[in-house]
Amino acid sequence: MTGLITNLFSGACLLALLSQSALHILAAPLPGAAADTDASSDSAPGYLSDATSWKFAGAMLSVPRSSIAATSVGHLALFAGGRLQNNSYSDVVDIFNRQTNKWTTARLSVARSEIGAGSLAGRYALFAGGFDSSFRPMSLVDVYDTETAQWSTISLNTPRGAPRFLDLGETTAIIGGLSGDLQYLSRAVDYVSADLKISNATIPSAYPQFGVAVSDRDCGIGLFTSGYQNNKPGERFNDFQPSNQSTLFVANDLSASFSQAPAFPSPRWGAGGAASNGLFAIGGGHLFGDGTTEPLTTVLDRVDLFSASTGQWSSTPLKLSVPRDYPMVQAIGDYIVFVGGSDVSKDFDILDTKSGSFIQGLKHRPALYTLRTDAAAATIDDCLMIIAGGLVNQGRNATASVELFNACRT
């Protein structure tokens, strides 16, 4: 299986990974090992590699809400839909332009929540599926063209809420989600090509899965893994269990293909993930216990690493500074940032993908100003991370507050 997976990757991607010693990264990553935070000569020119130099700024969404769909395309970050304070659904789209440093608003064609969001071909922002006010899964996809500033709509082959996105370059895969039928979890895959044509497929997995989707657009590689699965599809009563299923997606010209990847080493619910330099990091999440011999819920600090160059998971997991459930995870240059998903820490955990370890000993660690849950995150130009909306005051109130962490070189 390893050889088959490796052969699917583009030579350019593999060459880049090998030049950064990706094989060495997964040889023996050491949890807690210190990493150099100073700017280096081989750092990407677009971001500040010294995390203590990242600058903070605040802003406000036009409407307070949670469960927002977020994505970025070019110099834009878009935050769409979600739940209002009264639990009704929103059609508002807040758009931030990094070049002008200004916010504008637009509208989705239908108000909804639990929307999947992603980008396509460096041009389009896609907002797919979701649930309407009657909690029916939708097939609608709102498309924003950043070149023409125009909106249009297309349709998924299978309606579903909360589908997952993999941006594979000239193709985007929209995977799974909540189907609303007896099976409840969907195996459906919709591929959207750069000309906005949609084709469909079905993941032939053992069980329908609601997992984490992480892609490395530069390499045209995506990973769908972790989360939970329904062990009794089609039966009257579902049986949801942590999932170790992993599916690898690889771009092929204007399309993509998928194959089974090595099993996720630590099945759990509620993890988050991101990728940089061909290194995929899946961290946090929770497990359920019986409530007698073990807690009903245990939140985890574990981070598992998957290497695109080897097609394997690391045998040595890393640890977050605190356990995090449903963390927001974003890639900034060579870094993967974990934030939120915890009631005890506002601090960022910053994974350096070149060393395979978390940065330690920062004098001024980037941190949230406001603890929040169910918030949205997007990163523009690989250097400006924006965290928007969510629930505050122990989940009682929706907020409009926005926090911007600027790691961009001027």
Automatic annotation (TrEMBL):
Keywords: Kelch repeat, Repeat, Signal. It comes from Coemansia spiralis. Coiled coil: none annotated. Residues 1-27 form the signal peptide. It comes from the Eukaryota. This is Kelch repeat-containing protein. InterPro entries: Gal_Oxase/kelch_b-propeller (IPR011043), Kelch-typ_b-propeller (IPR015915).
